[in-house]
Amino acid sequence: MAITADGKIAKDKNQFANWTSPEDKKKFIEVSKDCGVIMMGENTFNTFPAPLKNRLNVVFTKNPDNKESIEGVKWVSGEVSKVLEELNKLGYKKALLGGGSYLNSLFLKENLIDEIMLSIEPKIFGSGLNLFNLDKDTDLELIECSKLNDNTVFVHYKVKK
């Protein structure tokens, strides 16, 4: 996920991440293609101009049966652990959680996040959507910290369970 210096992922649910650096976008492409799967909520998916190519776009929605078939998109609903089991049966060993705030919080609440990767962009929104919206004390262990450019920092954490 990309976040502002004040921890926001967007100003509102309709904002595409057009405020992030080219280096963040490059890192996102690298990580998501390596995983082969990107999971997101329907609001996040709707901010994209098209499904992300060369990876499975798993989109959580309330009514997956009412969605039109789109190449590279799997519409899902229900328990997130069951969706992960299904992806595992399809041969996927890892998946990238790409937001938004509600889905991030749901996965964290269910202890289904193993690692957190953040590009911290030199921007402050002041208000907007938080990375997580729940009261859950979670400890992290730093795996990596590096600069993506002169002003953007990339941090990679392991979630302690």
Overview of the molecule:
- The protein is of the alpha/beta class.
- It has one domain: 3-Layer(aba) Sandwich (Dihydrofolate Reductase, subunit A), CATH 3.40.430.10.
- It is 24% helix and 29% strand.
- The protein has 4 helices and 10 strands; from the N terminus they run ββαβαββαβαββββ.
- It has helices at 22-35, 42-46, 80-89, 101-109; strands at residues 2-4, 8-10, 37-41, 56-60, 73-76, 96-97, 115-121, 129-130, 140-147, 153-159.
- Strands 1-7-10-9 form a 4-stranded mixed beta sheet, with no helix packed on it. Strands 5-4-3-6 form a 4-stranded parallel beta sheet.
- The chain is globular, with a radius of gyration of 15 Å.
- The chain starts with a strand and ends with a strand.
- The model has no long low-confidence stretch (mean pLDDT 95).
What labels would you give this structure?
10 strands; 161 residues; Dihydrofolate Reductase, subunit A; 4-stranded mixed beta sheet; alpha/beta; 4-stranded parallel beta sheet
